[in-house]
Write a structure and sequence with these properties.
Radius of gyration: 23 Å
Number of domains: 3
CATH superfamily of the largest domain: Mur-like, catalytic domain
Strand order of the largest sheet: 7-8-6-9-10-11-12-13-14
CATH topology of the largest domain: UDP-N-acetylmuramoyl-L-alanine:D-glutamate ligase
CATH class of the largest domain: Alpha Beta
Structural class: alpha/beta
Length: 484
């Protein structure tokens, strides 16, 4: 085998390295495909797999074994005797397979670790901007990409955002900058990378069933700051993000920059009324640079407080990467949010129907609820071990009614009964193919001019839908059919 510490380039000799890839989703496939191109010896072990992916890898000479039996998976691992294991990030650390890898003291990576080592495929190493947070990370990642492109930089958003990072590394476009969205799962397993800029947008209860505790979840998020070379960006309104930055490893020489929805202090980027202002990445401490205005956000119909924080974060990150104010303003003028993120579906008879299906946890739902005054709230799904009580209590005054869906309805109904006992509650216990239709019909029945019918479930969607997009599309379709 080649010593792993010598494998620091695409041009290193990977041919003697034996690698087990665990999982064959989008990420696992990109890892196996990359390793095949590097001529490593590869075994893929997967609980399930797309037949087309199996066929493709077998043509490339990659051995694929599909088994849901944990003992068989471990036997395959032991028989192959790998030098390295690369896991799909969604695999829980308590799984028997991961425990066996740790017991055998085998190096354990994800695709992020491999991508960092081979990022020089097209010559010079790409620069990495790494972004995480409980909410907003996809929007901020996309904004930073658009700002970099406006500056004439060959940039690509990748990672947890949908494009596997290894696909971006191998792209013939030879990107100069990778804007990498990282999930808490990826960060849990992450070893060592050295981002140019890193950011934690916020940290709130989410994925506690996976990480085991809020503390473990927060520590995973904080790993993104480790070894940052130029700038660490934190949320001035979220003390934990600053604490995670302060506790990070080997990032002392990086500048610390905060972002805020409010008037920025020195070393912050924030809003002065309707102007986005940089007081951090300027030549003199008493200077300020105007970056953009609210008028630049003309393509975004609902300017929520959460969105304003995202814009400030993206601008801070981009300024740290050397992007100029006029380029930030230009990018924002054409920027549009992805679907299902506080998206206006219909405005009719004074009633707005808003799809925020991407609000898969209470923190994200709060961003929507804080934007409106009279809400008929469609809420519920898979709570992932998170308590929804604080959310219900905080926004009780703006709720007109709650329509509760999903498998975890009881905790939602109990929280409403405790904190807003007078609130009308309508439980939708119908089959999953009818649930959104019944929810929309009920909302239509009880809504009046001035109301917002808001799908912000504060929960994951996989109990009744394929994913949050499927849930949002179902809502939009029913609204346009039943209301319009």
């Amino acid at each position: 085998m080649s010593a792993l510490n010598e494998l620091n380039s695409w041009n290193s000799d990977w041919s003697k390295t034996r690698v087990v890839v665990f999982g064959l989703g989008v990420t696992g496939f990109s890892v196996a495909d990359t390793l095949a191109e590097l001529q490593a010896k590869v075994l893929v072990i997967a609980e399930k797999a797309d037949p087309e992916r199996i066929d493709t890898l077998q043509v490339l000479g990659v051995q694929v074994e599909v088994s849901s039996n944990e003992s068989e998976q471990i036997s395959l691992l032991q028989e192959f005797q790998p030098d390295l294991v690369i896991t799909s990030p969604g695999v829980q650390p308590v799984s028997s397979f991961i425990k066996e890898v740790i017991r055998k003291e085998l190096p354990l990576w994800t695709d992020i670790d491999l991508a960092w080592r081979v990022r020089d495929k097209h010559g010079a190493n790409s620069q990495w901007i790494c972004i995480t947070g409980t909410n907003g990370k996809t929007t901020v990642t996309q904004m930073v990409e658009s700002m970099a492109l406006a500056a004439g930089i060959r940039a690509k958003a990748c990672g947890n955002i949908g494009v596997p990072i290894l696909d971006a590394v191998r792209d013939p476009e030879a990107f100069q900058v990778l804007v990498v969205e990282l999930s808490s799962f990826q960060l849990h397993y992450l070893n060592k990378i050295e981002p140019m800029v890193s950011a934690v947008l916020n940290v709130a209860d989410d994925h506690l069933d996976w990480h085991g505790s809020f503390e473990a979840y927060g520590l995973a998020k904080g790993k993104i700051f480790d070894n940052t070379r130029v700038c660490c960006v934190y949320n001035s309104e979220d003390q934990l993000t600053q604490q995670l930055m302060n506790d990070s490893v080997n990032s002392d020489k990086a500048q610390a920059v905060g972002f805020t929805r409010f008037t920025p202090m020195p070393n912050e980027v924030g809003w002065v009324e309707d102007i986005l202002v940089d007081r951090a990445l300027v030549e003199k401490a008493d200077e300020a640079a105007e970056l953009a205005t609210l008028a630049d956000l003309r393509n975004i119909p609902v300017l929520s407080p959460h969105l304003l924080a995202n814009v400030a974060a993206a601008a801070a990150i981009s300024r740290a990467a050397g992007i100029q104010p006029n380029e930030i303003s230009l990018a924002l003028q054409s920027f549009k949010l992805d679907a299902h993120r506080i998206e206006l579906v219909l405005d009719k008879d004074g009633i707005r129907w808003i799809d925020d299906s991407k609000a898969t946890n209470p923190h994200a739902a709060a961003a929507s609820l804080s934007s409106f005054d009279s809400v008929i709230w469609i809420v519920g799904g898979l709570l992932k071990g998170v308590d929804i009580s604080d959310l219900v209590s905080k926004y009780s005054k703006i709720l007109k009614a709650a329509i509760v869906i999903g498998v975890d309805r009881e905790p939602v109904i109990a929280a409403i009964a405790k904190y807003v006992p007078e609130l009308p509650v309508f439980e939708i216990a119908t089959a999953k193919d009818e649930v959104m239709l019944q929810a929309v019909r009920k909302a239509k029945e009880i809504s009046a001019a001035g109301d917002v019918v808001l799908l912000a479930p504060a929960a994951a969607s996989m109990d009744q839908f394929v994913d949050y997009a499927d849930r949002g599309e179902s809502f939009s379709r029913c609204v346009l059919e039943e209301v319009k």
